[in-house]
């Protein structure tokens, strides 16, 4: 059975990539490419809406799709835990639709986030530095927010990280009590470093995206999962068995 897909944000780099992948993959049909000037009505009739818009637009796109019976794959940053919880409440017990939210389609990024959550139980000093291309409009990145939230959950029994001098703006934005620092620079695609400090040692967990090709496998795995999605699922680690025990992230 062919799954009909509408891509919202189809004119951006990621949107064009997703459209190409759908057109190259058996079992999928690209039925609509929506840009910023398109009417959301153009997605009606699809089975899945892929949201690759902007943080300020994403929520309205997702709600419109759900109201018209589409399952949704979200690749847009800016979905905080509060927004995700509100979305789960909106879905309630519906079993005909679901939303899959993927802060980062890279398998390597999902692994780095998982490793960071595992290590967080053993170190009290933890900070995140994320760097993206200069045109990225949101900060901190969705990947950094996701990483910080999982670190916070992993430390639930241990307590918050040690984050001194939080009154100083240069100390970064706190997400789940973890200081997060954002860089926006020409010449970069995406990089994240999680720094963990303990007695007599430090541990750094780094992931560097060199090409958009790194996202292809994760995109198709996420699309496959969205076909039967129920409720709200967050993170590639909830779709792919990483062989690691992480805090729950399905709303």
Describe the structure in brief.
With 251 residues, the protein is of the alpha/beta class. The chain has helices at residues 13-24, 55-67, 81-91, 107-119, 142-154, 216-226, and strands spanning 3-8, 28-34, 48-51, 71-74, 98-101, 125-133, 173-175, 178-185, 190-198, 201-209, 231-234.
Protein described:
The chain has 251 residues and is of the alpha/beta class. 29% of the residues lie in helices and 27% in strands. It is built from six helices and eleven strands. The protein has helices at residues 13-24, 55-67, 81-91, 107-119, 142-154, 216-226, and strands at residues 3-8, 28-34, 48-51, 71-74, 98-101, 125-133, 173-175, 178-185, 190-198, 201-209, 231-234. Strand 1 (3-8), helix 1 (13-24) and strand 2 form a beta-alpha-beta unit. Helix 4 runs parallel beside helix 5 (142-154). The model has no long low-confidence stretch (mean pLDDT 94).
Task: Describe the protein's topology.
Blueprint lengths: L2 E6 L4 H12 L3 E7 L13 E4 L3 H13 L3 E4 L6 H11 L6 E4 L5 H13 L5 E9 L8 H13 L18 E3 L2 E8 L4 E9 L2 E9 L6 H11 L4 E4 L17
Parallel strand pairs: 1-2, 1-3, 3-4, 4-5, 5-11, 6-8
Antiparallel strand pairs: 6-9, 7-8, 9-10
